[in-house]
Automatic annotation (TrEMBL):
<feature type="domain" description="PI-PLC Y-box">
    <location>
        <begin position="354"/>
        <end position="418"/>
    </location>
</feature>
<dbReference type="InterPro" id="IPR015359">
    <property type="entry name" value="PLC_EF-hand-like"/>
</dbReference>
<feature type="compositionally biased region" description="Basic and acidic residues">
    <location>
        <begin position="260"/>
        <end position="289"/>
    </location>
</feature>
<dbReference type="InterPro" id="IPR017946">
    <property type="entry name" value="PLC-like_Pdiesterase_TIM-brl"/>
</dbReference>
<feature type="compositionally biased region" description="Acidic residues">
    <location>
        <begin position="298"/>
        <end position="314"/>
    </location>
</feature>
<dbReference type="InterPro" id="IPR001711">
    <property type="entry name" value="PLipase_C_Pinositol-sp_Y"/>
</dbReference>
<feature type="region of interest" description="Disordered">
    <location>
        <begin position="260"/>
        <end position="322"/>
    </location>
</feature>
<keyword id="KW-0443">Lipid metabolism</keyword>
<dbReference type="Pfam" id="PF00387">
    <property type="entry name" value="PI-PLC-Y"/>
</dbReference>
<dbReference type="InterPro" id="IPR000909">
    <property type="entry name" value="PLipase_C_PInositol-sp_X_dom"/>
</dbReference>
<dbReference type="InterPro" id="IPR011992">
    <property type="entry name" value="EF-hand-dom_pair"/>
</dbReference>
<keyword id="KW-0378">Hydrolase</keyword>
<dbReference type="GO" id="GO:0016042">
    <property type="term" value="P:lipid catabolic process"/>
</dbReference>
<keyword id="KW-0442">Lipid degradation</keyword>
<protein>
    <recommendedName>
        <fullName>Phosphoinositide phospholipase C</fullName>
        <ecNumber>3.1.4.11</ecNumber>
    </recommendedName>
</protein>
<dbReference type="InterPro" id="IPR001192">
    <property type="entry name" value="PI-PLC_fam"/>
</dbReference>
<dbReference type="Pfam" id="PF09279">
    <property type="entry name" value="EF-hand_like"/>
</dbReference>
Length: 419
């Protein structure tokens, strides 16, 4: 029992006794199993850690450290010089010193299932140092994210100002660029600083074929044998995280249509419709065509890494950089049609689909079961809506509940950094 003092009616004080919460019957039974004469000794606590909590590497020193950390409970008359009483044990179980998953456990799940069976700690615009509109681009946030356990890094790649090299930046914004090669070297150096499991690099590609060939050379020379590259064909099933240890995986939309081709088509279309390309709102060109599957484009959805593959041009495919396509291990893209087609499961190949936060919210209402069915074999990436300019984040539970393996977070959010 403890006492608390309260001021009543702003003029006098009263003291009230607070009854401590009692341990339920299950905890009493557990305590009795690992104690003697109402006291849990260091030896008893170590046996509890090993047998019940499965901390097989627990030592007497670990058990003693726990007891030493609970010494502040002595004033409650629940701490005995020879060990713990029931109430101290109860407070330990539900306190900060007993986290849900002990860091000493390490990896204790089966990691031999396909990659689609696991949730992956995923970053969004991993190169940004701050907000989504005007912050600097750097490899520093990438390094910080990898040291925090992030396994999916996103890089938006664009031609540099002279069109002879490749930069990483948030396109059509005021963000300052960073060289792609610098980001790739940082990924190589820090990818496995805290985990041996694979790192996926998702590329938002805005390059011409000649620059795609240059990126392929950069990636090949930088990562070497670390690169998992099964060829240009889609995988029939994803490998397991266990088989991909210390490997780096490239994921992007296979090159079927290119920036120059899109610009030509865009100009022709604008000329036919009497539109001025300058009338396009910033980021508007990155908005996917959702008209076939939803009521209309969401005004909040201003940032999309994957365009529809409806307007495929065979003449542009002939200029493709084959070495670039062969590096793509996880093929991405929405494909033709609307949401029903996007979520169609192909028994002969697996792929990655990306949906924005608003797209997912709409999709779960009309296609919830299809999403769950899709994520059983394929990968689903969900990213924050474009108007989160301050790099804030959304509630990830909706994505996780429907099997989305890559729920992408802004790591650099003001005051809410996840790193």
């Amino acid at each position: 029992m403890s006492k608390q003092t309260y001021r009543v009616c702003f003029c006098f004080q009263r003291r009230f006794k607070l009854a401590a919460s009692e341990a339920p019957a299950e905890i009493r039974e557990l305590f009795n199993r690992y104690s003697e004469n109402g006291v849990m000794s260091v030896d008893h606590l170590r046996r509890f850690l090993i047998e019940y909590q499965k901390e097989e590497k627990a030592t007497l020193e670990d058990a003693q450290a726990i007891m030493d950390g609970l010494s502040e409970l002595m004033h409650l008359n629940v701490f005995h010089r020879r060990g713990l009483h029931l109430e101290a044990f109860f407070k330990y179980l539900f306190g900060d010193r007993n986290p849900p998953l002990s860091p000493s456990l390490g990896v204790h799940h089966d990691m031999t299932a396909p990659l689609s069976h696991y949730f992956m700690y995923t970053g969004h615009n991993s190169y940004l140092t701050g907000n989504q509109l005007s912050s600097d681009c750097s490899d520093v946030p990438i390094i910080k994210a990898l040291h925090s356990g992030v396994r999916v890094i996103e890089l938006d790649i664009w031609p540099n100002s002279t069109k002879d090299d490749v930069d990483v930046l948030h396109g059509r914004t005021l963000t300052t660029p960073v060289e792609l090669i610098k980001c790739l070297r940082s990924v190589k150096e820090h990818a496995f600083a805290v985990s041996e499991y694979p790192v996926v690099v998702t590329l938002e590609d805005h390059l011409t074929p000649d620059l795609q060939a240059k990126v392929a050379e950069m990636i090949t020379q930088t990562f070497g044998d670390m690169l998992f590259s099964p060829g240009s064909e889609c995988l029939k099933e994803f490998p397991s995280p266990e088989s991909l240890k210390k490997r780096i995986i490239i994921s992007t939309k296979p090159p079927k249509e290119y920036l120059k081709g899109k610009e030509i088509k865009g100009k022709e279309s604008d000329a036919q419709e009497g539109k001025d390309p300058s009338d396009e709102v910033a980021w508007g060109k990155e908005v996917p065509d959702l008209r076939a599957s939803m009521d209309g484009p969401d005004k909040d959805d201003l940032d999309d890494e994957e365009d529809s593959e409806d307007d495929e041009d065979p003449t542009l495919q002939q200029t493709a950089a084959p070495e670039y396509k062969q590096l793509i291990a996880i093929h991405a893209g929405k494909g033709k049609g609307g949401l029903t087609d996007w979520l169609r499961v192909d028994p002969d190949k697996v792929r990655r689909l990306s949906l924005s936060e608003p797209q997912l919210e709409k999709a779960v209402i009309t296609h919830g079961k299809d999403i769950v069915r899709f994520t059983q074999r394929n990968l689903l990436r969900v990213y924050p809506k474009g108007i989160r300019f301050n790099s804030s984040n959304y509630n990830p539970l909706m994505g996780w509940m429907h099997g989305a393996q890559m729920v992408a977070f802004n790591m650099q959010g003001y005051g809410r950094s996840l790193c």
